[in-house]
Design brief:
Length: 328
């Protein structure tokens, strides 16, 4: 049987390890669509998987990679035929199902969405789960009635992948954007993406008060833990916070005060298992509404051989924006 190159994570007595190796096609998992992966990307979750910093991977051996874009080679699914251009995000790929840091992937056709006209496979992975999650967050805020005239919108973890695209999207929609980051040297970069104000993440750290001074109408939080609790305490009456990250932890050391005294809404954003109709809507909005020059500004490139080092750097907070991975 033919083999192909892949980043494979294995587990031994000393823990997990990741390596670029040959993978036998006959060992691919079940699925009704096989596609040639042309581009992937490096997300924070990918970094956790390849470094073993968190128990992301739940079966071994595992091909890492939660995102992929490419061309269908074989299909038993009625929606897809050879030659179709497709995008894959989430669905447990790289965790419980063999992922996309590989020259070939086999998945369920229901997991795929069509590559929108006007986007290349590289563009789609420059956006990736990070940008798709950012759009889901923006759509959730819009659904709650948040409009540009309501007041400023905060983005935490703004120099990261989700944060960078959230800043660009919100700015493009006419919102006043406050960007929070722990990397003050990235202020100019965030302003180029459309941030009207850049604040130090320390302003959102420390002891959480039940209610603090009202500062923003809404927020996209990519950090979690005490940062999210402080963000909620500073959200204006009737505002909303879309939570989509947990880089600082899964705990929420706050109180119910923002919810019952200011009517603040906490909106959970899940990109992994989001239904197909929501995915298609988000990708079509990204195709139409994301400034390509800004996307290029936040994107760097590597190949399969560079994935493990990029994963280490993203976990260590040394990467801004997005990293695309050229496969093959």
């Amino acid at each position: 049987m033919p083999t192909f190159k892949a980043i494979v994570i294995t587990k031994g007595e000393g823990g997990t390890s990741a390596a670029l190796t040959d993978f036998d096609e006959q060992d691919l998992m079940e699925g009704d669509v096989t596609f040639r992966v042309e581009w992937s990307t490096v997300n924070y979750k990918d970094g956790l998987a390849v470094t073993g910093k968190a128990p992301v991977v739940r079966r071994f051996p595992m091909i890492a990679g939660i995102d992929g874009a490419g061309t269908v080679e074989a299909s038993g699914h009625p929606d897809w035929k050879p030659g179709d251009k497709v995008i894959l995000n989430g669905w447990g790929c790289g965790e419980t199902h063999l992922g996309t840091y590989a020259e070939r992937a086999r998945v369920k056709g229901d997991w795929l969405v069509p590559l929108p006209d006007g986007l290349t496979a590289r563009d789609a992975m420059a956006i990736g789960t990070a940008g798709y999650t950012a759009m889901l967050a923006v759509m959730a805020l819009e659904h709650k009635g948040i409009k540009p005239d309501a007041g400023p919108v905060l983005v935490t973890g703004a120099a990261g992948g989700v944060g960078s695209i959230a800043v660009a999207l919100l700015s493009g929609l006419g919102f006043t954007v406050i960007a929070s980051t722990g990397r003050p040297q990235e202020a100019g970069y965030l302003e180029e993406l459309g941030a009207n104000q850049v604040i130090d993440r320390a302003e959102l750290g420390g002891q959480v008060r039940p209610l603090a001074k009202e500062r923003w109408a809404a927020a996209v939080d990519c950090v979690g833990s005490s940062t999210l609790a402080n963000v909620l305490s500073m959200t204006r009456y009737g505002g909303s916070v879309a939570a989509c990250g947990l880089a600082a932890g899964m705990d929420l050391p706050g109180s119910v005060a923002p919810f019952i005294l200011r009517g603040v809404s906490l909106l959970g954003i899940d990109s992994v298992m989001a239904p197909s109709y929501l995915r298609k809507q988000a990708w079509n909005r990204l195709q139409a509404g994301l400034d390509r020059q800004k996307l290029a500004r936040i994107t760097s490139e590597t190949n399969l051989a560079g994935v493990i080092e990029a994963g280490r750097r993203i976990v260590d907070g040394q990467i801004r924006g997005r990293v695309v991975v050229k496969i093959g």
